[in-house]
Amino acid sequence: FQPIHEDEQKFVDFATILVQKAGTLVRNAFEQTESKVDTKLSDTDLVTETDQAVEKLLIDGLSKEFPDHRFIGEESVAGGAKIEWTDAPTWIIDPIDGTTNFVHRIPMIAICVGLAIKKQLRAGIVYNPITRELYSAQVGNGAFKNGFPIKASKNESLKKAILCQSLGLHNRVYFGDAWLDVAQSNMRNEALAGVRGHRSFGSAAINMVMVAQGSCDGYVEYGIHAWDVAAPAVIVLEAGGCVIDPTGAPFNVMSRKVLAASTPVLAKDLSSILTHVTFEPEAI
Ligand code: 2AM
Ligand code: CA
Ligand code: CA
Ligand code: CA
User: Fold this and answer.
1) Residue 60 CB neighbours (<10 A)
2) Is residue 284 predicted with pLDDT exceeding 70?
3) Do residues 220 and 271 lie in contact, with contact meaning Cβ atoms separated by under 8 Å?
4) How many CB atoms lie within 10 A of CB 86?
5) Which coarse location class describes where this protein primarily resides (predicted)?
């Protein structure tokens, strides 16, 4: 492990404790049926008081300890602020990934905190406060679940693969001159329809840590944002998996799309079969 900032370890250790504190808040709110739900852009785009409280807890806590750090948080940039990258340590935060699961009390949710320094992703923390699974990774240091090393599968065969995609409205993109549901389009492809199984956990981060721990073999999604994938991408890579752009190009955290796979062979096979759609890069 080669830090690129002398206090990098201190940053990550502090954030890990804070994420667990935030987890207690989420766990306590999880069983309450009364939690107030608002919609953002559409009926499927939910936000709760807990999303906002968790983001505040994380940003307040980190900025108090590290006043010169910067933040990219889902619920803070939603107001229309443009994301600007600087060399300063930057925390990329999704307070609850899987808000729909949270609202429906489906226990697959994750607090995601990624750290970039000098515009490079350096660390990722993905915590499911309900199952108390804490995934973490730092570049060059391997990936862990509750302190135990995790590894992506060695699967190179699509036929033996479990694939994750997101089904549902938000995965539709305007393509050509009509709406295209990317996951449905992929499923109509014979090679993808014939894999061992399909899963959709309702959280980008959970889908990705499933690849990181070798439970699933591939994950593809369009329309995601930096805060959905920054932290879990580090975890997949450090677990020995691949994270690329679905076209096969190098992964870009701002490009609104991601392909995670257990092996380079599987990543390449998936990339050659998938429905490809173009997105404007992150413009928030
Ligand atoms: P979120 O819960 O943080 O919003 C669900 O399939 C995955 O897609 C989740 O990671 C969810 O993140 C993300 N997502 C992004 N935009 C969404 C939307 N408009 N509706 C539902 N999920 C969305
Ligand atoms: Ca959201
Ligand atoms: Ca998210
Ligand atoms: Ca979220």
Assistant:
1) 11
2) no
3) no
4) 10
5) cytoplasm
Q: Which ligand is nearest to the CA of 170?
A: 1
Q: Which residues contact 183 (CB under 8 A, 6 or more apart)?
A: 165, 166, 167, 168, 171, 200
Mean pLDDT along residues 5-27: 97
Residues with CB under 5 A from ligand 4 (ion): 74, 94, 96
Is position 17 annotated in a ligand binding site? no
Range of weakest confidence among 17-26, 130-139, 191-200 = 191-200
Q: List the beta bridge partners of residue 197.
A: 162
DSSP-assigned letters across all residues of 240-283 = T-EEE-TTSSBP-TTSSEEEEESSHHHHHHHHHHSPP-------
Q: Give burial (CB, 10 Å; 0-12/13-18/19+) of 281.
A: exposed
Question: What does the alpha-carbon distance between residue 80 and residue 220 come to, in Å, rounded to a whole number?
Answer: 26
| Cα gap 161→224, rounded to integer Å | 23
Pairing of strands 218-222, 162-164: parallel
Distance CA 124, CA 16 (A): 10
**213: CB partners within 8 A, 6+ apart:** 135, 145, 150, 151, 152, 239
100 Cβ below 6 A of ligand 1 = yes
Distance from chain centroid for Cα 174: 23
φ, ψ of residue 193 to 5 degrees: the values are -65, -25
Please give the model's pTM, rounded to 2 decimal places. Answer: 0.94
**Which residues surround the ion ligand 3 when the cut-off is CB under 5 Å?**
94, 97, 228
Q: Residue 99 is which amino acid?
A: T
